[in-house]
Design a protein that fits this description.
The protein is built from 11 helices and 19 strands. The protein has 343 residues and is α+β, with helices and mostly antiparallel strands. The strands form 6 sheets. The chain has a 6-stranded mixed β-sheet, sandwiched between helices. Strands 6-7-11-9 form a 4-stranded antiparallel β-sheet. Helix 3 packs antiparallel against helix 4 and helix 7 packs across helix 8. The chain is elongated and about 90 Å long.
Length: 343
């Protein structure tokens, strides 16, 4: 790359895009990288403040910003994402190739971004995305960069993409509702419709809702009955607090399910229970807040369950940072801080 006076640039090849900004009208490249400068171009270049230009001189071991952006995209590339059609101002953007759960290897992303003169910016990890949604943007900071720095970035990822979109899998779901007050008809169940609505945001088939009293054996049998019917997930509502009559956590344990955690550092949703029956069938116990709060821990965990991404105790613990919902008058979830830091 060589710096010359714009008035001397006729016949030379631009090594970067030249951007023109007219307030309220346009912002974009007036000339693209690779353009051969003509005499007619000189007044235009001067009008956008370019008294000097960088022209391209290829050197061994040095990459132009566009080549470097392509190398950064290669660190993310897989069949679940696709790149922008062209590189603009040295930047490539990545988009979702399908609906699903957006996953980021945050630790490795941070390592790449610690390298000098390199950046990859993404959405938050574990967000639900639609086909065509923008996921990330990447570029290097200078116009040219040492190839060795991109090699170092590749060493961080070790050939495993930094980003991917995991498809949601259709699940057959059984709902078990506990509580003498509902079972005996003292009050109408209002929990089931909320769960059905939330599950309706994903590919699910509701096998049914069983309402049982506060007997541990009956709750356990209702869960196992749905699993015998072929349920891929069982959601339990009611009986999740520490009151003497709340038997749901014990009933879930009694099925033989492996408990991941009973309790999580999220408000609303501290009393949620996550477990797996036979290693692959989620059985979850939902606290009462899911019935009335706009967004709770269930909204943070459900997408992972639907994408068959294992929920671990560490995952739940990480939700504490960002796990306080502010109950805003106008809910903008997931475009807010709730759950974001922990994701």
């Amino acid at each position: 790359m060589k710096l010359i006076n714009t008035t001397d640039a006729v016949g030379q090849i631009l090594c970067h895009d030249i951007t023109q900004i007219i307030k309220g009208e346009k912002k974009g490249p007036v000339f693209r990288k690779g353009h051969i400068v003509t005499q007619e171009d000189i007044p235009v270049l001067l009008s956008v403040g370019k008294d000097h230009l960088y022209i391209w001189e290829k050197k061994e071991g040095i990459l132009h910003e566009n080549e470097a952006a392509e190398r950064l995209y290669a660190l993310c590339e897989n069949e679940s994402i696709y790149p922008s059609k062209e590189i603009k101002e040295g930047k490539i953007e990545a988009f979702a190739a399908k609906d699903g759960l957006f996953l980021v290897d945050v630790d490795k992303l941070n390592q790449v971004n610690m390298l000098e003169e390199i950046m990859i910016a993404t959405r938050h990890n574990n967000q639900v995305v639609k086909k065509g949604d923008k996921l990330a943007g990447m570029r290097v900071i200078p116009l040219v960069i040492e190839e060795e720095k991109l090699d170092n970035a590749a060493k961080v990822t070790q050939g495993v993409p930094l980003l991917c979109v995991k498809e949601f899998h259709k699940k057959r779901v059984g709902i078990v509702t506990t509580g003498n007050e509902v079972f005996l008809g003292r009050i109408k169940d209002t929990f089931g419709p909320v769960i059905i609505e939330k599950l309706g945001e994903f590919p699910t088939e509701i096998l049914g809702q069983t309402i049982v009293n506060d007997e541990l054996e009956n709750i356990k049998n209702a869960i196992l009955a749905f699993i015998a019917q072929g349920a891929d997930m069982v959601v339990c509502t009611g009986g999740m607090s520490v009151d003497p009559d709340d038997m749901t956590p014990g009933a879930i344990r009694a099925t033989g399910a492996d408990i991941v955690s009973y309790g999580a550092p999220v408000l609303p949703g501290a009393m949620m229970l996550v477990s797996y029956y036979n290693g692959n069938i989620p059985v979850v116990g939902l606290p009462g807040c899911v019935m009335y709060a706009k967004r709770t821990i269930f909204d943070l965990v459900l997408p992972k369950l639907m994408a068959d991404v294992p929920v671990t105790k560490k995952d739940l613990a990480s939700l504490g940072h960002g796990g306080l919902c502010l109950s805003c008058d106008v809910c903008t979830f997931p475009n807010c801080g709730f759950g974001a830091a922990g994701q």
